[in-house]
Each structure stands twice: as structure tokens, then as C-alpha cells.
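This part of the workshop introduces the protein records we will be handling. An example says more than a description, so a record of this kind follows:
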Amino acid sequence: MGDMVALRRRLDDLGSVVVAFSGGADSAFLAWMARDTLGDDALAVTAVSPSLASEELADCAALAREWELRWARVDTDELADPNYVANDGDRCAHCKTQLMTALAPMAAARGATVVLGVNLDDLGDHRPGQRAAADRGGVFPLVEAGFTKGEIRAESRRLGLRTWDKPAAACLASRVPYGTPVTLGVLESVARAESGLRSLGFRQLRVRHYDALARIEVPTDELGRVVELRDQVLAAVQAAGYTYVTLDLEGFRSGNLNRGLA
């Protein structure tokens, strides 16, 4: 069970931290707790690249203002790494290597430790990025303090953090099946399609990329609404460059492209 006292104690032990801050519920909770516990010895840093949706970057900036976080952005260039572009089963490891390469000097300059918002629920899925981060000195305080995703959301709600019910928003490359190269054009198509669907009121969604075909995932209780808004959904997704638009009847599943690794 998540232990707030243990989390604060661990942050105190670290003394100075650089929080990998994507703006999602987990990293936002960790950034807020680090700021509340360590004050100016906590720096939240957002890695900016084509795999980060523009709406997510804007929300990171907004949260930093609202919560008075010490915040910085750093550019990373995963698309310059041919191993990342190849999109094999270790794509996330290549991404986290880039992230740690960018954050490590910032942390070293402050005598700080890089901390990431990994929680207990993350440990069961295929997450090679966690291994890459840990191998390069990254620390997971939420895991050490025993927090699950649900407990992070519950504590965030208790603290009045608006991120408590923010839909999960993995990087845009997670919409691309393993083996399909990750390119700037692909990421832009996914981002534009998802932005168009959010403008129609869908909060939790994925647009999975299959060349000219887009596969839409929404929670099963919203499947009917996609059909009701069929014309607008088609217009939004086809405007992003897709010829064919499909609806996944299984609904939204975070990380479901990992099935392809079985």
C-alpha cells in the first residue's frame, strides 16, 4: 500500500532530485510531492521531442505555473537514433537512454538524482525503458514507497491535484506497431488524429497507426458515441492523412501493442 510518509522520507534521503516530468498523473504526483518536500531542491524537467504531443507539453507548462514548480524543458532527439526509429521491442529502452543522457548532466550539476514516476503497476508489463533508466542511475520513489496507479490517483485527488483523473497519455510512438519505423510524419499523423478526436470530447483514446489505416481505441462505454459521431470522426482522422478509419471493438487497452511481442 502506498505510504506517503515513506515517500517523503525517501525524497528527503535523496536530498535533491530532477523529476522526469511528462505531465501524466504519476510524474505530476511525484513532481508535486518533490516540490512540497524539498522545495527548490526539486527540479521538474520535461523532455521535448516529436513523440510528445503538443497538448501534453502545454499542460506541463501550465502545471508548473499552477504548482510553482521549478521547471525546465530539454530537447531530446530520439529520431536521430536508428535503433529507436527501427521500432523493435526495445524502442522504449532507446528512448529512456536518450532521456537519461539529457537529464544526467542537469542532475550532476545540482548534485541531484534523477527520479521517475514509475509505479508498482508498471512493473508487470513489457517496459524495457525502466531497465534502461535504472541502469543509468534513475530512481523510482513511487515503487519504493509501494504506490500503485490507483493509489497515486487517490492521493492526488485528496491533495486537490487536477491530474488525479487525467487520462493516461503514453508517448506517441506507442501507437506504432513494433517493426513499423517511427518517423516524424507518422508521429504527426497520430498527433493530429488524436487531437481531432479530443476536440470531439473523447478524453481517453488511442489512434493506432497502420500505414493508411487508423485503428481507434476508446473505452467500451464510448464505442456507441464514436458511431453516433461517425461523420465527424471520419473527417478528423482522415484530415490527419489516413485513408481507412476503424473502431476497435475491444476498446481502449494501454500497451496493447505489446501483444505483438508474444
User: Anything to note?
Assistant: The mean pLDDT is 94. DSSP finds eleven helices and seven strands in the chain. The longest strand covers residues 42-48. The first helix runs from residue 4 to 14.
